[in-house]
Structure formats: C-alpha cells, structure tokens
Amino acid sequence: MFYYIFSDLNEHSILDNLKSRYGRGLIYTYTGSILVAVNPYKMFNIYGLDMVKRYEGKPLGELPPHLFAIGSVSYTKMIKDNENQVLIISGESGAGKTESTKLVMQYLAAVNRSGNNLITEQILEANPLLESFGNAKTIRNDNSSRFGKYIEVFFKNGAIVGAKTAEYLLEKSRIVTQAPEERNYHVFYEMLEELSDEQKAKYGLQTAPKYFYLNQGGSALIRGRDDADNYRKLTAAMDILNFERQEQETIVKILASVLHIGNVYFKVVQENNHDRAELGSDAEIKWVAHLLDLSEDWLKQALTSKVTEARGDRFYTPYNLDQALDARDAVAKALYCRMFSWLVERINMIICRAEREKSTSLAVLDIFGFEDFHFNSFEQLCINYANETLQFFFNQHIFRLEQKEYSKEKIRWEHIEFKDNQPTIDLVATKPAGILHILDDESNFPQATDNSFLEKCHFHHSGNELYDKPRMSDPEFYVVHYAGKIKYNVQHFLEKNKDTLRSDVIELMCESKNQILSQMFKDHRDRLITKTLSKTTGRYVTVKPRTTTVAASFNESLLSLIDTMSRCNPFFVRCIKPNAQKAPMTFEDIVVLDQLRYTGMLETIRIRKMGYPVRIKFPHFIERYRCLMKGEPIRSNQVPWDVCKVILQSQGPEFKDEYQIGATKVFMKEAFESRLDTAAGAIKRAAAVRLQTMVRTFLVRNRHQKLRSAVTRLQRMVRMWKTRRDFRTVRNGIVLAQAQFRMFSQRRRYLKTRENLKHRLEEHRLHRRKQEVQAKMEKERRGNMAMGCVTSSECNAAMI
Ligand SMILES: Nc1ncnc2c1ncn2[C@@H]1O[C@H](COP(=O)(O)OP(=O)(O)OP(=O)(O)O)[C@@H](O)[C@H]1O
C-alpha cells in the first residue's frame, strides 16, 4: 500500500486532510514528497528502536508518513547515489523544528554502520550543549532555539565519521533584555541552580533574581524543566566532547562576568555643562576584572568613555548615561556571543575529523520560519529575507521536480511559465539598491540616521509594486513577501545593523591574561583583518576592512549556505504549530492555514496550478471515468493510453488544452477534473437508480436469480466508482437492496426448510406404515403356517 496522501493539492484539501489525520493522532502527512509535521504537544510512542527498524531502508510511501521515513530515504539515497543530502526543517517558533532535528539525528545514530560509538555519542551530546547556550524560554516556546543551525553529518561507507555545525544569527538582545514571561539563555539559570555555595562564592555569584540580566522577564523557573539536572547534563556533555578543565572554568567565568556586568550601574555627573556617566560602584567591576584577568582601569575606561586615536595620540570622550549603558551591554553581548561562536568552533574541532575527505554528508537545516509580528524590526527583515531566499531554493526544487516529472512523462512543457520570488529577493538584498545594501551604505556613513535610510529606500523603490510607503509619515516601509505583505519599522535599524562586536571591546578582551579568553577574541580579530598581497612590494599587507555589518555578514553566510545546499539533494519537512496555547492535540484552522502559507506550501500549489496539478495513473483514471465511454466496451487490443484518450475526448474538442496524456499518467487542470467528476457522477447516479429499480422489481416478482445478478452489479459499481459523492448514493442503494435480498433469502431458506420437513415427515409416516404392513403380513403368515395354508403372497410367488 502506498501512502501518498495528496495527489491533487489545493489549500482546503490540505487543511482538511491534516485536520482529519491529526484528529486520529496521525501527526505526519506527505504532500508530494514534502513531509508536514503537525506538533502534537504530547509525546507519542512512535520513535523507538522498533520504529527505526521498521522504516530502515524502506522507500518513501511504503509505510505511513513519518520523520524516520525521510531519514531512511535520505540516508539510503546518500549511500546508493553517493550524493550529499539535506533535510530542510522549517516552521515558526514552537512548531517542532528542534525536536524533529533531534529525532533525525537519533535515527542516523541508530542506523549508521559505524563501529566507533564515541564519535556518534559526541555528535549527539553537542545538541544539549548548544541547547543550554542557544535556547531560551519565550512566550511561544519554553525551549526556543534563538539561533539557526545547519548540521552536516559526514559518512563513509554508511558509517558516521564526523559532523559540523554552522550557526546563524544568535539573538543578541536576549543577553541584556528579556520581555515579560521570557528568560535569558538557559545556561545562566542552570549554572546558578547547580553550583554549590562554595563554587558560587568563588565566582561571586548569587541567585537568579539578583541579576538584572536574569530578572526582567519575571519568573526564573520553567514548569517541568529541571535546570540543575540540565547543568549536570551540560558538564557531562563537555566531558564527552573533551572540553578541558580550564576551558570549562573559563566558560563559567565568562557567564559569571556577564551577570556581574549587567549589575553595573552609573551615576550622572555634570561636567562643563555636559552630563557624564560615572560608575556607581566598583564591586561588579572588580569581579569582572578578576574573573576575566583584565586590567580594572581599562575595563572602567571602556565602560565610561570612547577612545579615538589620531596621529598616535589617544583621546577619551566621556559617555553620557545612555552611551555608558550601551557600552555595558555591548561588553556583555560581545562576551556571550564570542563565547557561543567559540563553543561551536570548539565542538566542530572535536567532531569534525580529518576523515571528512571523500565522505558524503547528510545535513539538517533547522532555521527560523517567516515572522510577522505587530512590530517588525531589523531582525524580522533578516529572517524574512532568509526565508525568501530559502523559498526561492524550495520553488526551484519543486519546479525542477515538476520539470523532471513532465519530461519523464513526455509532456509538452514549453507553455508552462513559472514565476519565482526573485524580484522580492532583489528588493531586500544587499545587491545595489537593495534595502539591505542601502542600510549597509548608511551604516558606514557617520551622519546617517534611520530616517535618512528610510528616505533612500522610498526614493529607490517607490515605483516597485513589491514595495510600499505608509500613508502617514510613520517610520515604516512595506515589503510584499511570498507569504504576505509585511510592515517594517525602521527604528534602530542602523544601530542594530552596526551591532557587530565593537572593536574597542575586542581589543580589551585580547589583552586578558586568560589565554583561552584572549585567544577567543584574537582569532575573531584576525578574521576581520583581511591580508592582501600588495602588487608593488609582493608582500602581504594588512587591510583595515570596511565596517562589517550584521546584514553583510548574514547575507554572506546565507549565500554560502544556499551554495552548499544547492549541491545536495533536498528533502523538506514543514513543521506546523496547530494552536498558540501549546495545547495538546488542538487544531485551529486559521492558525494552520497561515502557516501553510508561511512555510511555502501554498506557494507549491501555485506552482503546480500553473501546470497540470492533477495527475492520475492510467488504471485509476480508467476505473474512475470508464462510465464516460457510454457503454462502449474496452477492446482487448486497446492500450490504456487509447482508453484514456477516448474518455478525455468524450468532453469535446474545446477542452483539448485542459489535459495531456503522459506515459503512465493523465495530467489535468483542476477545473477539467471537476468537469469529468460531474459528468461521471451524473451517469453513475442514473445507473445506480436504474439498478435499484431493477432490484426492487425482481424482489417483488420473486425472481431470485436476476435479483442476485443485479445486486452483484451494484456491488461492483461501488467498488469501481470511488468518487465519494457517487459512492454514498450507490452505497445507500446497495445497503437497502442487500437488506431486502437477505430477507428474501431467509424466507426462501425458511420455505425450503419447511418443505423439507414436510417431506421428511411424509417419508417417516410412509416408512412407519410400511413397517406396520410388513409386521401384519408376517403375523398373518405365521398364523397360516400353523393352519397349513399359504398366504396370498406365497401364492403369488408360486404362480410366477
Ligand atoms: N514530535 C513531537 N512530539 C511531541 N511533542 C513535540 C514534538 N515536536 C515538538 N513537540 C513539543 O513542542 C515543543 C516545541 O518544539 P520545538 O522546540 O522543537 O519547536 P521549534 O520549532 O524548534 O521552536 P523554536 O523555533 O522556538 O526553537 C517541544 O518542547 C515539545 O514539547
């Protein structure tokens, strides 16, 4: 049995199918080869080793839809075709991407042919580690990944030999601010829960509510989450991943320093008619300087004044309160972000072995979905730009699949035009005149403001139909994305875009006496400085780069990601969040429909609709529409292709552009399919009514044999006519006829039995009579013998 759920895609059929399957506890559904996973918010027992074994090596569609089926097909394809594979898992926050990624990784760990369990274990252990540092509680998800990740697992001869993780856009603002009901990254709370009083004293730590960077969201606890236990798991993972003691110690010191920095406060002092920020207390600074092995004075200076250099001289400009608070947060963000990237690099060093050469890879992309909030800012523009680019990739894939299918089926293709979302990508992109490009230009121009950026966007794009200005003079612009029209507010765009690690903070950390910490920042600094070969001297010269902006570096990593993925064979998993309350097994149509749009499912329909979205295999087509041949028999020498042609042509020549007959399937437009269904339905219903009348007539006339054949024909009709509407009419008729037929048969049986009984009774009576006669004759004979005369029968015998 094959489990391709939708042969024809349309918005409502997808929604209805998902809903009815979800209601039956079936959370996975295929639409074509795309797996849709609707979050059940309740663990089903469907991920055990028995399921791994069940799905291992099975082609897609042979077993019910499942994440393991995708894992199995991609793994088998990678080995068989020696081709890299990628699973693109997308969906909005809380839809189930991270869980799906973990399940796929577990599946791969279970089926791979590696004799080395350590590397597999290390790869799996990297997950809780990154989760502690990169996940946090948000109002949408208690364990929300605040970064995108691309995990490549490398295989040789079917065995795992290593893995590599790339991270995208860690949410920096969370380190210093959290919305109500939200938390900072898990690791802070886990550390404070698990460290003993003695250890806490060593780092000057207290409880979570004492820290400004941890107490802004309210409750520090998450129901059902054991922070202390997670910290134990985290340290165990670090041990398995060979993190040295000193490295682990430095991590705790950095985390503690971030918390101390957050508690630094400032006083405002008047100086020469200007406000100047002055440190409120020394205690936190002393702890940070101690833990990070930094000069206390340099740290104070970095928090209270800006350093500029001119002709070898250094000038210090004091910060006002806002600038000082920004500087404080910048140090905290720089420390945490750099540590996070270093952790990823460090994990990669351990699990990404040299054996990677000549290996094939199976990658999983777990990336934030399309976002449309009440207030959309720079982060949403980047995320939606990434989604727009991924959608382009997805469309191209679907388009390629379509093209492949059409050419395999020898369908004429040239009339079908596919529109893609490239114009929107160009509008947002970092290409000349793209919104992000304008932003980058402005970011390198000291006098620029958010408004000047907006004006330039309006100037360049007001004629573009994918761009819109607000009616009022609000600081906003609209972009028409594939998933809808989104309003962006440009407030803080420039500042957010420039929010790469500040060079003064990098310099400060490079000076640390803690080798691990200073190396972390030196590596980063070296990467920023590009070395170019000077043409005149032939020597390498150090070139100070153009300020790297968030948009530019994000765009660069996005393009490299797309480039890597385009060399892989992709599979798509679309995760859907069925309700906003995280309620188990609750399906809300509006919520799901929105996501079908955001995950690009409806876009797929659009692409398919431009061609021939309905495809039906010949035998199925003939079975379904045979009645349109109007009684004309199928000759034994008639091939299915010809039969389909006769059926299709029955609708008249004016519909010839509505369908094409391929090598094994009939391709149709949706409207033409409806037409065929309507025509076939009418014929079938009329035939059903005729047959039902016949059944009734035969029943009345007691024509048993004819009745039986009419019921058989009705039954066959039901089996053959699979369209639901007709099925119901005929089925009702047949149920009635069958009931009548049963009654009729019972009566016949009853009559027959009664007849038999009568007959047997008669026989019995006759037999008894015979015996009586014989007994009488015997008696008579004996009496006569005694008297010396013969009986009448003996007399008869003598005569013969
Ligand atoms: N297959 C599943 N079975 C049972 N529960 C699930 C499944 N997938 C997800 N969940 C539940 O949904 C929650 C959110 O899932 P997950 O963290 O994977 O979402 P996400 O899409 O990665 O969100 P974010 O983008 O915020 O990281 C999980 O903590 C879990 O409770």
TrEMBL record:
<protein>
    <recommendedName>
        <fullName>Myosin motor domain-containing protein</fullName>
    </recommendedName>
</protein>
<keyword id="KW-0175">Coiled coil</keyword>
<feature type="binding site">
    <location>
        <begin position="91"/>
        <end position="98"/>
    </location>
    <ligand>
        <name>ATP</name>
    </ligand>
</feature>
<dbReference type="Pfam" id="PF00063">
    <property type="entry name" value="Myosin_head"/>
</dbReference>
<keyword id="KW-0547">Nucleotide-binding</keyword>
<keyword id="KW-0505">Motor protein</keyword>
<keyword id="KW-0963">Cytoplasm</keyword>
<feature type="region of interest" description="Actin-binding">
    <location>
        <begin position="558"/>
        <end position="580"/>
    </location>
</feature>
<dbReference type="Pfam" id="PF00612">
    <property type="entry name" value="IQ"/>
</dbReference>
<dbReference type="GO" id="GO:0005524">
    <property type="term" value="F:ATP binding"/>
</dbReference>
<keyword id="KW-0067">ATP-binding</keyword>
<dbReference type="GO" id="GO:0005737">
    <property type="term" value="C:cytoplasm"/>
</dbReference>
<dbReference type="InterPro" id="IPR001609">
    <property type="entry name" value="Myosin_head_motor_dom-like"/>
</dbReference>
<feature type="domain" description="Myosin motor">
    <location>
        <begin position="1"/>
        <end position="681"/>
    </location>
</feature>
<dbReference type="InterPro" id="IPR027417">
    <property type="entry name" value="P-loop_NTPase"/>
</dbReference>
<comment type="similarity">
    <text>Belongs to the TRAFAC class myosin-kinesin ATPase superfamily. Myosin family.</text>
</comment>
<dbReference type="GO" id="GO:0003779">
    <property type="term" value="F:actin binding"/>
</dbReference>
<dbReference type="GO" id="GO:0003774">
    <property type="term" value="F:cytoskeletal motor activity"/>
</dbReference>
<keyword id="KW-0009">Actin-binding</keyword>
<dbReference type="InterPro" id="IPR000048">
    <property type="entry name" value="IQ_motif_EF-hand-BS"/>
</dbReference>
<keyword id="KW-0518">Myosin</keyword>
<dbReference type="InterPro" id="IPR051567">
    <property type="entry name" value="Unconventional_Myosin_ATPase"/>
</dbReference>
<dbReference type="GO" id="GO:0016459">
    <property type="term" value="C:myosin complex"/>
</dbReference>
<dbReference type="InterPro" id="IPR036961">
    <property type="entry name" value="Kinesin_motor_dom_sf"/>
</dbReference>
